[in-house]
Amino acid sequence: MIEVVVVLDYNPQKVPQEMFTQLCEKAYNPLLNMCNDLMLPTVHAISGRVLERLHTQRQEEIIQSLKNMVSKEQSIIATKGFSSAAFTQLSKTEILHQLGFAHEVNKETFGKSTNIFMPQEGWIDVYMPGILKKAGFKCALLSGNCIVDFYKKAPESTSTIHKMRGLKNSHIHVISSYTNGLVSSEEKINDLFTGKITAKDFTNELFHLFDKADKPVLMLHVSAETPFFQEGPRSAIQRLRFFIEGLQGAGNFHFSLPFPLIERAENEAELGPALIQDKRLHQLAAQARDLIIEKEKKDPEALAIRKAWKSLLFAHDYCFTEEYLEQLDSSSNQMQYQNVADLYIQACERAQLAMKNALDA
């Protein structure tokens, strides 16, 4: 059985502000009606800012449709934060505010918060698992292209539930969108919207790819704005509907929300930090250095300052060149990759400790 998770991703900033009402009429409302008609379990990836925008621009039909599906447990919200930010570039304070305000908006709208996170940039770094766990999140939905690109893994790995490792032995479950080679599921769905591929051909492709896989999870990433850009939005959504109905009738596909799949998951593969893309160490080290220098001016001989400098110097133990990291393949050099990942996490923790020591000075 192939488990299917459908994620409807809302990015209204792709459309000019003055066309927002048309976007709702031609894309959002018809897509929600389709999900409701098919009783399709759906994850709605939407930021707190977009929910507020729907309220302020009086799109009550959309709000009510979302509330009805959430209350019936047919749908669940995956927040992208309060705004659609690149979380790997944010400080801890900014991250906590992003998640905190998103929680508030979700509670106001649906009577409860969400515990699924879907970053706009498609990725989370070494900092996020611990923060997400403390903020009450149970899983993150990621881009399958990032799994393939960052870890040099085969596309089949995107049909597996992983655990992402972060600082201080923190973990969070992650599910990534399906990708076939260099083509993501979002691109495939867009081709379906535009008629470049047929519902039947796409269904057959998925069946042959996953039929013999061991407990595969197929996350389909659907851009909610794509129909708006088509000459015939209604026809585009109808093509998606034919595709979903085909999967529902095939017998080999079962639609689900993420949590039942996570609860049944066993022996999840572990993902450490994405070493090439993750710049968190540089940010933490710079913050620690600035804080130590500021505190040092008041009492340069303070024991806490000496401890802070030592912790920061320990963080420098992670000193691999970018060329070396680019050559490192997590599948063929597993022990080397694991060692470098461990050192990266330790270095980030040392930089955090340096900030704590400096604050104690």
From TrEMBL:
InterPro entries, alphabetized: Glyco_hydro/deAcase_b/a-brl, Glyco_hydro_57_N
One Gene Ontology biological process: carbohydrate metabolic process
Pfam families given in the database record: Glyco_hydro_57 (PF03065)
Domain Glycoside hydrolase family 57 N-terminal: 7-151
UniProt KW keywords: Carbohydrate metabolism
Gene Ontology molecular function, alphabetical: catalytic activity
Keyword NADP: no
Family according to the record: Belongs to the glycosyl hydrolase 57 family.
Protein name per the record: Glycoside hydrolase family 57 N-terminal domain-containing protein
